[in-house]
Amino acid sequence: MYYEDNENLSIMTYTLNSGIKGTVPLSNKQIQEWLESYKSNTKFITAIGKEFFGLNPDLVADFKVQNRFSNYVEMLRPVSGAEQASTEELSQAYEDNLIYFKVDCKCGTTYTTFSQYYTTKWFCSKCKEIVFMDRKKGKVPTDKGEAWYMTNKYFVERES
What's the rounded mean pLDDT across residues 42-65? Predict the structure, then answer.
């Protein structure tokens, strides 16, 4: 399996649970395959040129995909008054789709954070230790609404 379009590769940067960071160039199709693997927690294996690349989503703390060929300056433009309403609607839709997490770390730090993506692990902002989502405890009330509870104060059973 080779790239269908070598001119439109994006760079995926990922951080393993151990803190090691890595990058890999992926086509749009490979990005979609990675997202499916991540959601279903199945191993991701793909060909990059003549080499094979594999990644276990269970070992990935976070990742982001960035198109290295995009020219963001061309994409920026002033918003007209007529477009303002749709911009506000998009902003509200974005906020409605945020997922909140309550972090309760063994270092004593407790806070609420959010992400666009559902994740089962996070890093404490103070001590940088990994906290895990406690699905048994589920969502807890916070000042920002319901949030998934994440902790490292006790062993959290993870789905296999």
Answer: 86
91 contacts: CB under 8 Å, gap ≥ 6: none
For residues 120 and 159, give the distance between their C-alpha atoms in angstroms, rounded to a whole number. Answer: 10
Structure tokens at 58: 């269970």
Sign of the dihedral through C-alpha 62, 19, 68, 12: negative
Pairing of strands 10-16, 99-104: unpaired
The alpha helices in 41-116, defined as continuous H runs, are 72-75, 81-96
For 84-101, how does the pLDDT look when each residue is reduced to its tens digit (9 = 90+)? Answer: 556 677 666 666 678 889
Q: Which of 107, 105, 99 is nearest to 156 (CA)?
A: 105
Burial (0-12, 13-18, 19+ Cβ within 10 Å), 113: middle
C-alpha torsion sign, points 55, 123, 22, 2: positive
- Of the pLDDT bands very low, low, confident and very high (cuts 50, 70, 90), residue 76 is very low
Model-level pTM?
0.45
